[in-house]
UniProtKB/TrEMBL annotation:
Domain Amidohydrolase-related: 619-948
SUPFAM superfamilies, A to Z: Composite domain of metallo-dependent hydrolases, Metallo-dependent hydrolases, Tricorn protease N-terminal domain
InterPro entries given in the database record: 6-blade_b-propeller_TolB-like, Amidohydro-rel, Metal-dep_hydrolase_composite, Metal_Hydrolase, TAT_signal, WD40
Family: Belongs to the TolB family.
Matching PROSITE patterns: TAT
Gene3D superfamilies, sorted: Amidohydrolase, Dipeptidylpeptidase IV, N-terminal domain, TolB, C-terminal domain, Urease, subunit C, domain 1
Pfam family, one: Amidohydro_1
Protein name as catalogued: Amidohydrolase family protein
Top-level taxon: Bacteria
Amino acid sequence: MELSRRELLTRTGQAAAVATAASTLTIGTAQADPGVKLTQGTNISVSRSADGKWLAIDLVTAIWVLPAAGGTARKLTDELQDATLPSFGPGNQIAFQSYRDGNYHLHVIGLDGKGLRQLTRGRYDHREPAFSPDGKKIAFVGDRAGSYGVHVLDVASGAITQLTGAPDEAAAPQWSRDGRRIIFISGNTTVDVVSLDGKRERLVTAPTGMQLFGAAFGPGDQPSYTLMRPGQAELMLGTSAVVTGQDVFGFAPVWDGDRVLYTADGKIRWYANGSVTDIPFEATVPVRKVERHRTRNLRGGPVKGIAGPVVSSDGKIAFRALNALYLLSNGRTTKLTDGRYFDSDPDFSPDGTKLVYASDRTGAAQLWVRDLKTGEDKLFAPAPGAQTTPRFSPDGTKVAYVDHDGQVWIADAAGRRQITSTLFQPGRPTWSADGTVVALAAVKPFSRRFREGTSQILSVDLASGELKYTEPMPFRSIATRGDDGPVWSPDGKHIAFVVESVAWVVPVDAKGNFLGEPRQVTREVTDSLAWHGNDALVYLNNGRLRKSTLDGKASTIRVNLDWRKPGAPERKVVRVGAYWDGEAQDLRQNVDIVVENGCVKEVRPHHGRADVDASGLTAIPGLIDAHNHWHLRGRQWGARQGNVWLAYGITTVRSPGDPVYQMVETREALAAGTLTGPRFYATGEAIDGSRVYYNFMRPTLSKAQLDLELRRAHELGYDMIKTYVRLPVELQRAAVQRSKVPLSSHYLYPAANLGMDGMEHVGATNRLGYSHTVTRQGKAYQDVVSLFTSSGMSMTPTLFHNRALFAEDKSLATDERTRVLFPPWEYERYLADANSGGAASSAHILRNWVEFALAVHRGGGLVICGTDAPLDAPATATHMNLRAMVKYGFTPREALVTATRNPARWLGLPLGAIKPGAPADISFVEGNPLADIKAAANVRQVMVGGRVHEIADLLKPYQQAQSMSTTDTLEPLPSAQHKPWWHEPEWAEHVCCDH
């Protein structure tokens, strides 16, 4: 049973505001644990009352007030309010932005914590309020007009006036003293002013490579703002730097004559006459100590990882499972491919006699067509890059597919024609009945400033080249941009898709225009839609294959496919020159490691005959990469991905987000031994809010839908759950209360008091547009470090800026393992990055990130190594992360602990160690990684569960990629020239901690 809100607040020691009104907070009331005392704040903003007596700050996503001279802060808003950016108005009213209902809206509250009132509503975001000097108006920015523009709210009437609009991406408006003008930032590159009659003036343009934040009017109405450059943040007045040498946070300063109030270095400060005065504060917040879960290992049973099912015209079903393609016909399941490579995404020809699918057997995913009568396979329209998610045209002569860059193509006997520019992680194509339109799921953001939007239906008219986006429903997303639609019915009269976890069908015309309202078909979690004729849908429900008529009558289709773990390998004695057990300070020399039943039986001095001679090598525990996304580009990487992890000694990976059935299929295949690779612990799509970006985020808008998602997680055996950027705190809390597995997110607080188990990245993508755990210069302060160490929440750094180390050493980029096992296009990008010396990376941010992680680690916190691969490079990035840690303060042993013992502790499994009873997951390397961390990458062989993999064997399938001629490239359609700004490939810009 769910706790009531008041019960939860009481049990966790909070006495904050309740649903409609806030009250003063007595910190620590009715709690045994006194909580965590915060004396610094990371990326906090400050506002000052008109009488100069009070300050308001936003610390750990709540509004606090304190005397102007400093002292104990008093909390005004509760955790569910998720409140930031306070602005004092007359009468000591405080305006702020709140994300309570799943969109940003403006609220006001009194200094005494009373009179909480919501001022804006709806599906658009209203952000960054600023009271006018007379208190009658509030300036803010919002995306109501297709981009972020400056708006003015009349407080009395609620009327809103728009002052700027598209193509602006305005931020942080502030008023002039006379209340006639508003200064703001546009695109982080200019400081502009707009008057209430709409007249506009540009005051400042940022120099190349620099950004601007937090504009305000200073003395003499000069523009004041923060100028951010690599390694430096300066508070400016006009063209002069007023404050330098500090980590200025980039929020609007408060000028009082020639002195200025601002936030920097974790503190509230006055600057005047060349000197700085700190305003001390103290705030206490409750935390809940993490209780570690134990992850379960799969042991076998009915196959649940059924990926991409499709139905033929005569009722046969094809799908991927256990690293092979299968055909289900007349109740009998037959294996079609041998599972040596990555064969995926089958589709039937219109007459049901052929199957097109993608396979990487030639080295990269290409289209193959199988004759189901003869079993013969033939290449179809080969291309230089990857070809994925194919669909036959209604006449069977053409195939639509998506390449490795997200471009959509059509191929036939005459050649290949591009029909879209690069799209960001688009879905699988579908054809209109007459073959004149191709449609697929594609993201469309609300603005340039924030990347999230809705996943809509993108249709391409093949005759005119016209592109058109269609919302499946107002402000709603197709569930995932994978196999959740759109899917056209064979007769062309309907399109099916999944919204809010259930299937819908809408009548359409020949071009895909909606002719009515969508109608709900299923009431259970629905994934991977396929039409069964024109009057029924086949889909996946929590690992079951189901069929539903359009009037909602559902039944289960038996697949009759089981799997089991292979038997343990034979007993082996491995002779090594040295080993590190995962705990000791130094290596132990000349030992034999006895392995039985896949586990370490004994570690002893050399004795008798050895089965494996690694006497010139050092044995270390297999490494664990605790943050990657196997299927973010899984189709493009194919079977290579498991090999590259092993080749670099990574024997376990953890994914905090993947397309669910791709994930379950891979997890079962690895456990069953039908796919080579490391142990794989993972979750399905991250649970997100009303807006999404990545294709594997699940828009979740209610507790009822959340219950569906959590039931799916339980029945599919998720190893964890990740809640993502736009999920409101109330639903995050409900996920914690109702889930039985570990949870992580991109947020530290109130996650540390809700019972979350970890936070991904150092300062992840955040609905605020900035982080409260790390500043724009990459630094974290006492509040953040104390919350991590006190709560026990894990921290996964994902050090993207490790690329800066290429300036010193690019050996991992030129290594044969990288060259052979990376797909060609991925390797070209990686090598170019290395040859540029990692120019796009910032060494100063990397240093600050590592120092932050080191403070948490040495303070007793749990730091676990992760990479966010493939946004960073699979496997090699693990070693680049370890090298960055050592370069900036970790000892080699400390760094290795973050990739062995610590993530094993998070998983609750006896991994990350070489000791009796532990699984025999061992990396055999040249050198001493406790003395030189680079030696950890010098892997010569690797063992997983007692099975030895030689590097040569891992390379062999891709050592000699087959050369083949490619079909002609035809003139692209006009639609391919249309390049919406929001469809940048995910590797185009390595932003901090994307997901």
